[in-house]
Amino acid sequence: MNRADVVEVEAANAEYYAAFEAGDLDRMSALWAFDSDAEGQVSCVHPGWPMLRGRAEVLRSWALIMANTTYIQFVLTDVQATVHGDVAMVTCGENVLTAAEGSESDFAAGGSIVASKVFVRTEAGWRLWLHHGSPVMERDDDEDDEG
Amino acid sequence: MNRADVVEVEAANAEYYAAFEAGDLDRMSALWAFDSDAEGQVSCVHPGWPMLRGRAEVLRSWALIMANTTYIQFVLTDVQATVHGDVAMVTCGENVLTAAEGSESDFAAGGSIVASKVFVRTEAGWRLWLHHGSPVMERDDDEDDEG
Predict the structure, then answer these.
(1) Which of B61, B72, B114, B145 could staple A51 via S-S, CB 3.0–4.6 A?
(2) DSSP class of residue B19?
């Protein structure tokens, strides 16, 4: 892997979270690749959501999410970026702080998410081809698999 | 996209589910790529699980899951495969039928999952680089976004 590629991809990954935290739909839109007949459609899975396909549907979901999010902050853990030619994959954990409506606290809700992203290299830089986020659930009954 | 590539990738995707349904760890192992210093580690997220990284950890999870699954069957929906050079992405829905222990019915449990996969082209064929599955949850409060 080219180290410069990895740095660029990590920056694109950071921009995703910065755009989300800022509630800036234009910045989020700029990050996503364009659908094409030859290359297919972009895809996005928000935690607990079904698969969204195509730039229009994905950006509509972001407009909805941003309109309903008064505050959100991410602390990323264990970010790993790998590059294969013109495609890059980034996986990480997201520790999420978000404001709950009607709460006196600014930090009433949160959660642990794992996220996988695929970026493609374009003339305009690395662009999101896939984001898949999912909630990490408690699994008490699997804790005994250590032995 | 080369149509022959897409057909091969769709076959690799089908083999993943056939290996899971058969409970065949060898077939599942054969599907996964190898970690490398240059290319990084494979990653896997089972629904509700944290991120697993590296071939050893991923295959250990498959051994555990297969040992605890007496019956499982997948009906895939909306399979979409895209190929970018030597990397392919497959997204689909998984309708899951699985046997619950102690139940009189063979089809006691099930669920709706969405899955994203990344395959890389190797000399031995397309190999899994990432699998990310997550549960689709009911969202009554979002049903009004149609208007």
Answers:
(1) B114
(2) H
